[in-house]
Amino acid sequence: MGNHLLRPAPGPYRRLFSASGATAFTAGSLLARLPMGMSGVSLVLMVAGTRGSYALAGAVSAVGLGVTAVVAPLIARLVDRHGQARIAIPAVVLSVSASAVLVLCVRREAPDWTLFASYAATSCAPNTGGMARARWTHLYRHDPAARHVANSFEQVADEVCFMLGPVLAAFLCTALFPEAGTLVGAVLLLSGVLLFCAQRGTQPPAGSGTARGRAPLRTAGMPGVLLTFVCTGVVFGALEVTTLAFAEARGHPGAAGALLGLQAAGSCAAGLLLGLRAPAASLPRRFARCTAAMAALTALPLSARDLPVLACCLFLAGCATAPAMVTGITLVQSLVPEDRLNEGMTLAVTGILTGVSAGAAVAGWTAEHLRPGSGYWIPCAAATLAALTARLRATRGEGTAPAGCPRQGAGL
């Protein structure tokens, strides 16, 4: 009895996964989310490598993101209304089929318009991250502390997928063949969603078939928060491309993967530690502080003149992105109605993907026309805009909620 009483209590993350089925659906969601970070780089390398045109690759990517911005929230709304498995499985089958058609069009040298059409059709892939958060909310609907830990874990998972996805895609497309990144991403997406949806015991109940809450885009405070997500996506995309160009200019192109891995490691560590801390200030103020820290640390790579210094700067910059993302997503969850939660989360992810594509495109142009490392001004400017937007929201008091008193479904 004495030994039992002296045994330390399990940590918050261990307690989180004690729920039946939690580990299985988390594994599925991680597999399904990794292709989100792979898709952009995979597409550019595949199209540019086979058609010899970065302009065509960028145009196809831009059209795909435009379609995603429209279709993804609609898919999320259907998930909220009719249930996860009922919508996610047919949606992912359609998305993966479109990826296969895209690869065939590239291999068979089909007309350019077929690339636009097939890549646009991949946009119906479900937002597994939002569905995973809904499951945590359902499992721990009476435990706000567990929802806080789950929210931090999910943001770290998103962060790692967005950071490591491009690295994996670049490796597959360059080490194997140009279409490898797209094919592997499709396999991961399909297997991940099927594994995720197979865990029916953790699936939250479907809605009534209607969403009565205010649309997320019409919710007070949401447009400003979504702008910060676009800016954060620009930070991700520009850092990736500029780091690749910087390493190549220094004669060590293979080091880019390790450098981006350090950035992801810093982000992952900061996010996990954040989940262990109880929130102290209101959400808008925490968001303003986190984005200000991101703006300050994202400026560090500007001072780098060699790879070792750049490695340290990227690690520190990564430490700032996860807390900003965790707090921003939590703010979204506190703003949108409960019956539109998955839709609101999908809008946030769409903002990030849009920013990643824009940041990568601008950084690519900068790498070709200016000196190596000049592209680090792009994430610095984007993070500063995010910090100013968050500061303005905090000053106005938009989305204010009592600290430590989350509403049902907020996750924090």
Describe it.
The protein is built from 15 helices and no strands. With 412 residues, it is mainly α. It has two domains: 21-151 and 164-210, MFS general substrate transporter like domains (Growth Hormone, Chain: A, Up-down Bundle); 216-406, Growth Hormone, Chain: A. The protein is globular, with a radius of gyration of 21 Å. Mean pLDDT is 78; it is low at 1-9 and 399-412. InterPro entries: MFS, MFS_trans_sf. This is MFS transporter. It comes from Streptomyces physcomitrii.
Main traits of this protein?
412 residues, mainly alpha, Growth Hormone, Chain: A, 2 domains, 75% helix, disordered N terminus, membrane, transmembrane, MFS_trans_sf, transmembrane helix, MFS
Sequence-ordered SSE layout with sheet pairings:
Blueprint: H1 2-6, H2 12-16, H3 22-51, H4 54-82, H5 84-107, H6 112-121, H7 128-139, H8 144-175, H9 180-198, H10 222-249, H11 255-275, H12 283-298, H13 307-335, H14 341-369, H15 377-396
Identify the CATH architecture of the largest domain: Up-down Bundle
CATH topology of the largest domain: Growth Hormone, Chain: A
Number of strands: 0
Biggest sheet overview: none
Radius of gyration: 21 Å
Q: In the CATH hierarchy, what is the superfamily of the largest domain?
A: MFS general substrate transporter like domains
Proportion of residues in β-strands: under 5%
Helix content: over 70%
Shape: globular
> Which structural category fits the helices and strands?
mainly alpha
Which class of the largest domain in CATH terms? Mainly Alpha
Summarize model confidence as the mean pLDDT.
Answer: 78
Number of helices, counting only DSSP H or I runs of 4 residues or more: 15
Distance between the termini: 35 Å
